[in-house]
Give the backbone structure.
Amino acid sequence: MQTTAEAVLQPLKVMQAGPTDFAVSSADRLLAQTAPPRQVMAMADPSNYGDRFATDINGRVVRNDFIAVLHETVGSAQSALNLFRTHHPRDQDQVSYHTLIGRDGTIYYIVPPEKRAFGAGNSVFNGPSGPETVRTNPAFPPSVNNFAYHVSLETPSDGFNNRRSHSGYTPAQYASLAWLLAQTTIPDSRITTHQAVDRSGNRLDPRSFNGQTLFSLLRQYPTRSGLSG
């Protein structure tokens, strides 16, 4: 029997193993009528991601359901991809997302979904069942990375700064993000942002994000029926 995590990740894992024009075989009529976004493999250096752990540092079994954490690059997509491709031997320098969505809607697959991307540091997801976080390294605070699928949006050029807002994201980015999340079984209630899970209070991303636009698009996919609660 598949675990919840396996059921969530399998569609994304299959997509990344196939050609870039892959269409989900079990797609419903809407998906069949909608061409998938352009997809590109842009794998991170192995130093920038790791395995998902079955237990925390104290040996406790962890079975958190997956969450999707939304980010922004605060720079160009290419600069982010170059950073992730760079070998970082020091733990404190290692960073990655699973996926990045460019301004034109291109989806870049960076870290395999079954692996742990290093997208959030000191972080917690406050869900219906209470705070969720997992500590996997004694040298660092607990985080959501062990059960997170990290997706980043390329920031517009007027947002390459520390201001609290910018001109926002393109329709193509919202459409690709909805398409990507529609391939998973992560419910709407477990789609969150870096700002929301961050414990430091320093993260604002994704700035100027319109959640209503995303969920409106996402709910057009019949495959999401029952996941919007």
In short: Residues 1-7, 17-33 have pLDDT under 50 and may be disordered. The first helix runs from residue 4 to 17. The two ends are 25 Å apart (CA to CA).
